[in-house]
């Protein structure tokens, strides 16, 4: 850890100074000149922790340096987090200082700790209370003497020592003054470990605390692998993607899914999928054939990009991850390149695994922001053409109404997402048919996005009409008017065809639509292309419909809705 810092200093009282001197000289290769003796020998003539800190700053002339200060009588599990994460968060929050906190155990009293109230969005500490009564705050976040200070705050140390009437002032009283009265910006970073002040104790007391932390470490061990699943989705109504500030309704389905499994391991390993990430072939001819059909972009890149962005997110949100490695693997049966959200399903399942493995909850990554995280993995890291819609329904699951209007997106950073309360047995029968040899769904969007953002009236009016159609469909679903839903689905396709044109939609996609229309069923695209969704009516002869689709080289399945109860 020492290599992360240019210098490390240790302040001791005179009573224990010789012990540290011997330790530095014989066991640790610690520079003797970096040991500071504050001259005190008794509690009654001690300087106080803040004055000890000022002594180091003055003697070593550190006033223009960024400084990390940690209490020397504090025991914590440094093996459970990376110090580099703390420093990275400090660098990221360049407009303020950083204070470390942890979530107190239920047996701990607020009277023994400095308590912080932290803004969940910005991570700024809004209030610091030094050893308050439990009735003074609802927070269970305890701050300890573990701070990262910038030079301006070091000058505040001098100001406080000169003005304070407290005898032997400590860091708790200083931080309370700094945050509550001086309104200095201090960000909080949560560490995945507890802290104990060992103070003036003997070997027996120290060993008891080591034993306590050992038990704590075992309590956080994963007993076995964690497996999480994310389902494919069908877009029931709305605009074809969701970068147009529109509205959509989508349904998650049980037919297809992706799942990932994470398990603790000595090193971090990402396991290639034997079919989607082939690394061994029977011959060069086999490699040519598989690559020509499947391409080069399997799911392994999705795992790796999700892990990278997860670490980045936590580092910038003040969440220190425990120092644990894992093995991560995945499986999926979602057909590729037919617009059923196969890529985002793998990312979603991976995020769920990582959150549970590292004990993160929705307070760390709120549910409305999870789809945005998943989208950033795909768009920013992997340049996959995508929008929020798929990620929302895969995070929330079920039949979901989504409103992405510009005002909401600008104000909240996400849309309004609403569960549509319905039992899956109340839904009509849907079918899904898709191409056996599809194109890349990410290319189907063509130039519609550019036309929309440059003010093309046809596209802008079409997207507005689709948003209105979504609201009408929501009312029809709530009233169980399925014939009207069928009409709205047909209108949805007509509007899309008008905006995109047949050349972009493609002959094979249009052919699937025409087959459904021939059999008198409402049909539309459930995604960006390569598949068709249909609503079966009472007059539909499903066997005839299935056979005709199959005769044109399509796969035909009846939809099994996934609506968690």
Automatic annotation (TrEMBL):
Record Pfam families: GHMP_kinases_N, NTP_transferase
Keyword flag Ribonucleoprotein: no
Origin superkingdom: Eukaryota
InterPro entries to which the protein is assigned, alphabetical: GHMP_kinase_C_sf, GHMP_kinase_N_dom, Glucuronokinase-like, NTP_transferase_dom, Nucleotide-diphossugar_trans, Ribosomal_Su5_D2-typ_SF, Ribsml_uS5_D2-typ_fold_subgr
Domain spans labelled GHMP kinase N-terminal: 309-398
Protein name: Putative glucuronokinase 2
Nucleotidyl transferase domain ranges (all copies): 3-187
Keywords: ATP-binding, Kinase, Nucleotide-binding, Transferase
Matches recorded under SUPFAM superfamilies: GHMP Kinase, C-terminal domain, Nucleotide-diphospho-sugar transferases, Ribosomal protein S5 domain 2-like
GO terms for MF: ATP binding; glucuronokinase activity
